Predict the 3D structure of the following.
Amino acid sequence: MKLFRGKFVTQIICSECKNISEREEVFSDISLQVKDCKSITESLSMFVSEEQLDKENQYFCEKCNKKVDAVRRVRIRRFPPVLTLGLNRFEMDWNTMDRKKLNDRLEFPLELSITGFKEFPEDAGEDEYELKAVVIHRGGAYGGHYHAYIRDELKEGNWKLKVPEKYTNEAKAKVKTVNKGINKFMEQNPKENAKMKVEEKNEELQKVTQEIEFNYDECDFPLPYANKELRQGWFDFDDESVTEIPFGRLQKQFGSLNESAYMLVYKQKKLTPIFADPTLVPECWIEPILTQNELEEQQREFYKSEDAQIEVVFQSSDLFTFDEELMIKYKVDKQIENQGVKVKIAKLATISQLLDKFHSAVKEKPANPLVYEIVRCKNEFCQVIRKLSAVPMDTPLEKAEIQHLSTWMYCEKGKEEVLE
């Protein structure tokens, strides 16, 4: 979480005594305004802008003991190594009481400098960020679909797109005829649904419009950037589909009729050498990774030990009734699986060793018991499968096909005529 955790402070400054009241908060993302902003830097400037508290909105200063004019502002005290910016593309229209999506154009850079937005100066290396992912919303205010453009920084993917020798600055335009249909109309006018007649809906369904679609695949990025490697390694993650894309397509998400950027993820440039070498791990990850590795190793050893053993259930013949047709049945049907003696033994053990464990575990030791494997049938009767003494005593359990949780009935001599 340290990678994503930053800190900002809300301050109120009294205009008379200059006293500063502040409240510090931890954040994992910054929510930025889209409306009336042309770029991310404008949105960040608006986020840290000052608000005047005056007239009926005056601030009560405890030091002055009265209401005074004041200034309220937000200052970002610490930026996280991985900076997540959420874009407010949904708003409420209080006149119509409808929710709306803003597809307004908002430019975001490949390289972002946070100089000027911090409360205190920091190392120069911590001021520069690079774009690593764009979360995209496709659809309207009442529904849609999310996918993401993500840059493969470790170069583990199969990105083989040909990089143009020369990029163009103009996108290719294509005019599309779109049937917006009743679903699009109702998305924009949800309250009209109850009022509209079937004829009106059918009329709306027939309406078509023309939209211009731009192709930016061969375009260079319109905002300045220094690191040319940012042109490569971009993939579109859309549910189970992952496809390589040209980096020029990023600018399509500044804002369009169908989809636009909803969240941006930037990473400090100074982290690049760490992530560029997969053998190196960020220091903040080492302790949790070692703890998790230790837990995984303990679980692995436990499962390995369990997998090497089987559990066999031995039940006394006293739990069964024997009828004239040589069928056996449990006397008490309820919780019968909890009856008897459970013996845990290694799969590589022999029949002889299994019987030794059985004799050690059973309390009332029968003299020379006969042991039979039984299987419970659907009609509540049990079927005798085989006699254990028919298998050579030195046979390994695996070879003898002694199954995990198999049930074996033991009885005194005298009942073998019924069972055999």
